[in-house]
Request: fold
Amino acid sequence: MNFYTQLTFAKPSFLFSYKNPILLIGSCFVENIGTRMTDLKFQTDVNPFGTLYNPASISHALRRLIQAEPYQEKDLFASGGLFHSFDHHSRFSALTAEACLNQINTRLESSARFLRQCQRLIVTWGTSWVYREKENGTIVGNCHKLPERYFIRQRLTVEEIVNDWKSLLQELKDINPELKILFTVSPIRHWKDGAHGNQLSKAALLLAIDELNSLFPEQTSYFPSYEIMMDELRDYRFYADDMLHPSAQAIDYIWEQFVTNELDAESQNILKDCLEIQKAMAHKPFNPDSEAYRKFILQTLLKIDRLNEKMTFFDYSKERNILKTKLK
Reply:
């Protein structure tokens, strides 16, 4: 007997593998999943512009990566003692324009190269609401706490999102024919417009993705992170204290569903080995000077060596150094 609504997953048109370099871009849900993938030794590049929420800002960021055109000082503005970019998260802001541009362009250059050779792209949309600068109508990725009077807030229509992304998907195919794109909608609720406003916003995203998937069936796919949260995990115990963000337990569950349904069998087995090593690294011994703990460290180093023989691109140098330090 089931006491919850269980999702049925459609067979994906493509799978993910440890052999696939993966670019992830979008909302803070991407940060959660991307950090996990990076820690488990996937070849990743996570949010080269920082956290972005709406489809228009994400498409703009991807086009900047396609063009690989460096940002200039005229693209920045000063506020609160820092220099900012409307295209970037505040993690790129800095005390001087030079420092800000250095961070932005260093990342832009490396991520532009990565986009051309990666095989998978995960895109997470969070909201269809956007902020436009009143002066020129440009959609911003981040308002950087400027007064709301500087912007016009509006919701993108399904047609606007689809038209923008139709041309973008073709541009991506032109520069990287092997690239496969997985769309997701963030399960995080945007409550500024209330329950109904949040649902309208998410509905626009879901309808746009559905249309894009029908137009590009071989190039794109969809992972139902939003539906997992809304249906399988609809109880409030799966939310954080703000009752809007998924809890750690919910993120764990969505990650497990991703692994089960989107990862190929070989990579699922390798993932188990990576998790064993990760667990061993987090182990806190009762007696760190004991012979038993010394053997435990040596066994962990052996596991790393054996895994590196199979997956030569895995970088376990940091873990090796930590373990060897504990042997001294």
The chain has a mean pLDDT of 94.
